[in-house]
Specification:
Helix content is 28%, strand content 10%. It has 134 residues and is an alpha+beta fold. It has a three-stranded antiparallel beta sheet, with no helix packed on it. A two-stranded antiparallel ribbon has the order 1-5. Bound molecules: iron/sulfur cluster. The site of iron/sulfur cluster (SF4) has 14 residues, from helix 1. The site of iron/sulfur cluster has 14 residues, from helix 1.
Length: 134
């Protein structure tokens, strides 16, 4: 069953993966994905997800603003796990939309993305203190 727990990790298994499920990433690797930093998927009813594959919401526009959702714990946890390569049990671990990448290489990509400030408007700040972020 696809859950709707806004504060839980998106644990997935079996049928929840649907057509999205691919091989897990190896230790030291993560997914080549910037979606939790630069993309949102919004249902007409207001549910917000970090991408079209993710099985759980990260927030609800009927309850709070997009800016708050993009700075709240559910999406920050997804970012942290991608940056650390700690994807066990999550949709990102089995994601067939994004190729594997070494953890250090994703960190470089996110750092470049952050420093040039493309995420400034909705994340509410220009990220120059990368080591403390997210
Ligand atoms: S499920 Fe895939 S596309 Fe979505 S945030 Fe995770 S790695 Fe990115």
């Amino acid at each position: 069953m696809i859950g709707n727990d806004h504060h839980g990790e998106a644990d997935v298994s079996g049928s929840e993966l649907g057509t999205w499920g691919g091989p897990k990433v190896e230790p030291g690797w993560t997914r080549n994905c910037l979606d939790p930093w630069n993309f949102v998927f919004i249902y007409a009813q207001g549910e917000v997800r970090p991408c079209c594959a993710y099985p759980k919401a990260i927030g609800d526009l009927n309850k709070t603003s997009l800016k708050n959702i993009l700075n709240d714990e559910p999406v920050k946890k997804i970012r942290r796990n991608l940056l650390a390569g700690t994807l066990e049990g999550s949709m990102c671990d089995r994601c067939s939309m994004r190729a594997p990448i070494k953890v250090d290489d994703l960190k470089k990509k996110v750092k470049e993305f952050s420093v040039i400030g493309l995420c400034h408007k909705y994340l509410g700040r220009r990220v120059t203190d990368f080591e403390k972020w997210p």
